[in-house]
Design goal:
Layout: E1 4-7, H1 11-18, E2 22-25, H2 36-49, E3 53-56, H3 63-71, E4 75-79, H4 90-96, E5 101-104, E6 117-118, E7 137-140, H5 149-160, E8 168-171, E9 183-185, H6 190-199, E10 202-206, H7 209-217, E11 223-225, H8 238-248, E12 253-255, H9 261-266, H10 282-293
Parallel strand pairs: 1-2, 3-4, 4-5, 5-6, 7-8, 7-10, 8-9, 10-11, 11-12
Length: 308
């Protein structure tokens, strides 16, 4: 069985190719970038590839590919990302209607996807052991195409007030060069990013699932600023959903507009993995579902019956 990854061109695609994986790239397709060309590219890729089974997390660029593949008889599995805690993504709600199986990673999503199977969040599978110590502060706003002045302003103020240990290294993204007691870079290679996170005493992060998961794997309890829809910082509030859940579990510290001494003190109370239910690991369940679907014939019914 041949495995192919579908993504946009960029760091992730290059990393996959470096590991010897087969990669197909498509133009970006999301609420901020919708074009007939992007839709057509996904459809044509499905015609060329003719997959037997498609596994998707609902990324926008994959939607035309998934719909076209389903029309061509492919089986479909939708895995909602761990960033979605209480509400599903727009693409996820669409693709779940035509999927053979739906896997979610938080119990609240069972109300959103009635046919879904609840699995343990991948984020909770590899929580690092608490690692006290470290030097300085590492700050990341991720790779989002919008600047994050609310977070960066709060970091600058906290550094000036002496709340954050020096040196303070900021991965600032598309923001302009920062002033004050901060050292900043636009972006960082993955290896340097992970090294900075592991060696820091304190991590301050936006609410992106990848960055937060990296901090938790590194044995940190990060301070999180979630990008918010109401402030024009993101298209929805999925970062806020995840940050609230991790704060509730004692794995992160959610802040809004400023960093307090209490927030900094809380980062030193690093928790281990919470007690987990009897739900299966998402990776194990996905492997079993795909193995079962590969034994079934192609099917040309697109929409599945709605659960009552």
């Amino acid at each position: 069985m041949q495995r192919t990854w579908l993504t946009s061109e960029g760091v992730a695609a290059a990393r996959l190719r470096g590991r010897g994986e087969r990669v197909v790239t498509l133009p970006r397709l999301d609420r901020g970038s919708v074009s007939p060309r992007s839709v057509l590219a996904g459809v044509l890729a499905a015609v060329r590839e003719r997959p037997s089974v498609v596994v998707t997390s609902g990324a926008g660029l994959a939607v035309p590919f998934c719909v076209a593949s389903r029309l061509l008889g492919a089986r479909l599995v939708h895995v909602e990302t761990m960033a979605r805690v209480t509400s599903g993504s727009t693409s996820g709600r669409l693709l779940a209607r035509m999927a053979d199986a739906v896997l979610v990673q938080w119990p609240d999503l069972a109300r959103v996807y009635p046919r879904a199977e609840v699995c343990r969040p991948a984020l909770l599978e590899d929580i690092g052991s608490p690692r006290p110590g470290g030097t300085g502060t590492f700050v990341t706003v991720g790779s989002h195409d919008q600047a994050f002045p609310r977070m960066l302003g709060a970091v600058r103020t906290a550094a000036q007030d002496g709340l954050l240990p020096q040196p303070v290294l900021v991965q600032r993204g598309v923001a302009d060069q920062l002033d004050g007691p901060l050292t900043s870079v636009e972006f960082m290679p993955r290896e340097a990013f992970e090294e900075a996170m592991e060696s820091a005493a304190i991590v301050v992060s936006h609410g992106g699932a990848g960055a937060v998961a990296s901090a938790i794997r590194a044995g940190k309890r990060p301070i999180i600023f979630a990008r918010r829809r109401a402030l024009g910082e993101h298209v929805d509030d999925h970062q806020l959903q995840l940050a609230r859940k991790l704060d509730e579990l004692g794995l992160a510290v959610l802040v809004v507009d400023r960093i307090t001494p209490e927030d900094v003190a809380a980062t030193r109370d690093v928790r281990g993995a919470p007690v987990q239910s009897g739900s299966p690991r998402v990776a194990d369940r996905l492997r079993d579902v795909v193995a079962d679907l590969l034994t079934l014939p192609r099917t040309f019914r697109v929409l599945r019956p709605t659960a009552r």
